[in-house]
User: What shape does this take?
Amino acid sequence: MELINNHILTILIAFPVVVSFVFLIIPREEKKLLMYLAGLSALVEFIFSLHLYFYFKNTGSFEFIEIKPWILTWKINYFVGVDGVSLFLVLLITFLMPLVLWSACSSIKVRVKEFVVSMLILESSMIGVFCALDLFLFYVFWEVMLVPMYLLIGVWGGKNRIYATIKFFLYTMAGSVLMLVAILFLYYQGGNTFNLVELYEHTLGFTAQLWLFLAFALAFAIKVPLFPFHTWLPDAHVEAPTSGSVILAGVLLKMGTYGFFRFAMPLFPEAFDLLKPYLVILAVIGIVYGALVAMVQTDMKKLIAYSSVSHLGLVMLGLFSLNPTGMQGALYQMLNHGISTGVLFLLVGVLYDRTHSREISLYGGIAKAMPIYATFFLLATMASIGLPLTNGFVGEFLTLAGSFQTIQIPTIIGATGIVLSAVYMLWLVERVFFGKLKTPGGQTLLDITRQEFLILLPFIILIFWMGIYPKPFLSKMNRPIENLLIQLAPEQTEEGPVQIHEEIHMR
Amino acid sequence: MMESTFLSYLPYCVAGFPLLGFVINTLVALLWAKNQKPGSEALVKLVGCLFPILAFILSLICFSILRNSPEGMVISPPALFRWIDTALLTVDFRFMIDPLTATMMLVVTGVGSLIHIYATGYMHGDQGFARFYAYLNLFLFFMLLLIMGNNLLVLFVGWEGVGLCSYLLIGFWFTDEEKAKCGKKAFIVNRIGDFGFLLGIFLVMHTFLSQSQSSDLNFLDYSFIAQHKDLFLSEATLIALCFFAGAAGKSAQIPLYVWLPDAMAGPTPVSALIHAATMVTAGIFMIARLYFLYELAPVALQVVAIIGLLTALMAASIALTQTDIKKVLAYSTVSQLGYMFLALGVGAPQAAIFHVVTHAFFKACLFLCAGSVIYALHHQQDIRHMGGLFKKIPVTSLAFLVSTIAIAGIPPLAGFFSKDEILFHTFTHAPRIFYIVGFLVSGLTSFYMFRLFTLVFLGKYRGHLEPHYLPLAMDAPIAILAVLALVGGFIGVPEVLGGTNRISHWLAFLSTEIHGEEVAHHGTELILMGISSAWALITAFMAFSLYLKNPEWTKTLKEKCQQLYNLVSRKYYVDEIYDGIFVRPLVWLSHKFFWKGMDEAIIDGVMVHGFADISLVASRIISRFQSGFLGHYVVFFVLGLIGIMFYLAVG
Assistant: This one.
């Protein structure tokens, strides 16, 4: 057990890549076998990852740490570990992956071998991003992850895929190039180390902080995406295949919010303090703007893409509020968004497989032909608009309730999102599902198959579990937030953070 | 107070039973979604009605336990589980039964069960029979959460949950796009209110976190708020108004009432249960629940009273002109809800709840009767095609008459006592104008209800189709409700008439002010009762003579005041105004300005593509220099050389 505990993260990162090497020897004609094996290995990966959950001790510092020297001259280490936040993000990846691969069986018909290899490499690199505790290693994973994502959209995407791919690539590259410069600069400023834990201890000068924060924040803001860096998202989503959209919305966007939480905020606390009001304003604009633009979309995927802008704006608001409850809600909302938006994209994919259109105006009255599908869609909608007893409510409520304690006016404006989300989602449901059945060939539309049912069911279970009994998740997020809050106000140990610290421990 | 641990969880079963019914019916609905099995309807019927009835029986048990325990006792079962557990806030999933909850439980499960039974007849043969019962059971579950929760967040769960069921049931016949739209409208308008509700909760949290020294984090519990209400002195008005925004959404008050008339698109049993008897009174329940907060905020109470009064007046006036039987009843509901808010606003939460109870009886009965009429007349809802139905459907007609007398406030039926208590309290505790308007509205109520009764049941039948036979499953619940409308008022007979006003004493804990009629006012009270009874009778008689004896008068009247009539019958154009002020501009702004303008033209067009274009142009210019001609390169070389020499010479 000790052995597994010490190497579990490496196993999780390496396993998909190793499997993808094995795939190289399987002939490309064996499409079924390739898909089957890929799905199976993702499932095995998921089971491995459960180990993290069960053996996580919630000590408050990083766990399952593994550190090995890599490039000695630059003091670069292979340094991985998880805390209560990254733990669940890793679980989110391993949870989504087998289901996404399974759903791709019916929609990906060409270049299957390349597809599964891309997906597995993507999985490895995404897990790497959330586990890396060495900035250099983090950057490597961050960039590696872009390549399979780029291929996913560019090869298996829709009509306008090349435009979307280049836009996606350039947008993200613009951010990450600056981040690379910042990382190197940080290396020299921060005592010649890439080790995150050591860098946390180091205090930088204010000007250096400001520039570094801006560089990091830009990279992360593009990924989130914060307004006005969001226009790559609708295009990427519309053109990406279903599996790409699910991963994009489910995991990739969280890298931005996670980046703020793990790097930009704790490494440059004074710069963050100065720029916080502007970031809050961007977050709030994102909530309202994303929702309003989502309302008038004519393409289902675009609508959900813009709704992501709105939801992620809320996550940022909670994170920037620096209220423990608000931050907890925000971190929880990251997981919720991965699940509810992930399942929404899967559901749109199900419909797309049958009719090859995402144009809302072409649909109408689908509920009559596909009642079970409609039920699933409605449940996902409820989670998305944060109805109580679904996960979305817990996340939204905690985020807003917490933010309200520190930043009232932005929270009030942001809270209009709960009204607007109902507007655009219910309008979508009304146009697609209700009314007369007017979809061409609507009478013969098949309700969801057994396979689709089994893919969708875990999402629905999770939606209710996380909405009714969120404790197993929330309880592990307290300590990382505590740590960040201490990190953010090191000078005022007399009052602020200690008080919060005590308040947390009073119980 | 409860010895056995198992028994102490009993209150959870009250809500648990309908939930179980929902689960079973959902399974039936989904399994047999495509090909309906013949036996499924019987199973659904059994499950759908049995569990609400069991919930009613348990409610009766809870009620009797509470009734037999000493005053001030509250049934407080242990928490089912800890729902939210964060650094600054904990919320338990927990129930609590005090007299207010017990009263509402009886109404919800009792009237609810009757309507469930009624619907077996009304919905018979419908394609979505199982789905209907699934939603209806789910509604009861959420409604019970709403009234039984011991903290604001469980209340909110129920609150949003009943909204969801309302949405699903209004749009139950979803193949009709108009009906689906009505459901969506209801949900969204309610969400606007919920926005206020949530802000209220946040403000409560803020007040505690910034002032309280206590380490107890259960501060959304009612008992906790009540204990620490001193902390709220400065914030009370704001908090109370925020909560009132929520209440105005759910209970259809100005400016958020617009969804309720449209909600009539749902099946009639739904209108009876959700949009008349139970859900729409949730706002009144909430304010009564938090009355200790409202007592700290007299300004908020004034607002509640004024909004209630205006809503009552406006809705009653619209009800005068409607021609759809359900629309008349819908506006009547809005108007009666306005009365209840008036009661809350003038410091009589007991009277408000009393009216909630009696209103549940007679309005549910009226709606079910309307359902029977619609059923009998093959889905005809226009009262211009009715008339003379008294002989054809006698049970329904008699029940409708009883309920009409009850709502009109004619003694000694249910509505008389509750309405009179509200009016009397308005007379003694509020500016005189409040009473005058309230009095006027009671006359309007009597007038439009007897107008409706006359047009539907008296005179000659103006339709074409022969009325259907009505099954017992529909007649029996109507009869029971009619009896309740007849005698329901006796739970609150005022002292001046020799009663003890039991419900008022039962709910006395709601307000700190010593309730009960001051003896000095007894004379006044008797006079007011006399006047308002006479007023109700006079207006009723006016309606009779106008619509039965002299129908041509109404035509002349209509022509004389054509513009006024149009204004009222078109509902003061409020829907059109909202559409013009809010909906259209917002959609236009989002589409033209934000999406096409900001996103596509500025961010993408200017910034992203502009950036790309600049680099493209730059690279083109630079690539010119690489022409491939040796001569060009020599020129560049020489130019460069000169430049360097110049630089060296000057520098």
Remarks:
- Chain A touches chain B through 67 residues (CB under 8 Å).
